[in-house]
């Protein structure tokens, strides 16, 4: 059983190493999503400020058609921002679920290794008793 035990420990170590790598990539991805979220908000804020300025100028010139078109653009920007934020939230939820799955996988791998060690000890005791 020794070589099998060594293989199981190696397998567990490999699984842990892979999971650590996955967690590192997930943290990087989460950081990138946060940066994307902030960049989108800043971009939308700047575009809305610019459109707000344009709208005020058009209103002062009594160009209601231009002001209305500007208001429509503002609504479009807000809609796009909400869609992008929903997409980012969806990705964050996916990464969170993947993190939970990785933790569960490692827990199951450890439990399997524990059961294999326990079985091997029992087999050894049985062998010693019959031998």
Automatic annotation (TrEMBL):
InterPro entries the UniProt entry points to: CEP350/CC187
Domain of life: Eukaryota
GO molecular function: microtubule binding
Any GO BP annotation: microtubule anchoring
Single GO cellular component term: centrosome
Name by which UniProt lists this protein: Centrosome-associated protein 350
